[in-house]
Amino acid sequence: NIYSTEETKQVLRLSLTEFSLPKFYLLFGISKVKSAAVIAFRSSYRDRSFSPGSYERETFALTSLETVTEALLEIMEACMRDIPTCKWLDQWTELAQKFAFQYNPSLQPRALVVFGCISKRVSHGQIKQIIRILSKGLESCLKGPDNYNSQVLIEATVIALTKLQPLLNK
After folding, report:
1. Where are the domains of the chain?
2. How far is CA 45 from the centre of its chain?
3. Helices (H), the chain
4. Given a cut of 50, is residue 120 above it in pLDDT?
């Protein structure tokens, strides 16, 4: 068993229990079901009435993503203490950064939030890139207030900057 310490096992048990509670379904965007398994294990083969658009999709709030990311980070850090050569967090941070700085209306805001939550260090260049993204989002909003993607991008950059600011040198 690679998760040898009792502390790690306790973190994993508590996290599993926490994520199994109905109040946490909302964080994963599945609050309108009695059990997460109803959505997770539903298949089009067994249930012909199900198709990707046949149930009402809930929006996945960036604040929910922030909470989920912090919970997953806690689990990852607990496991990493038991695996000395583990590079999971470095790989996750690298992927989050890649998508945070790459234009994609669906992924970029989420990646910015994740990057902000999991980063252990940040450069001034990365902060400049986030501020440029914020600037572009603000410009887009000024062109038309109905631009939902720009509003989400602005929210994501503010969350990321809030998380990253304490990591900057004074």
Report:
1. 1-41+49-83, 86-169
2. 30
3. 6-20, 22-25, 36-40, 62-81, 88-100, 108-118, 124-143, 148-164
4. yes
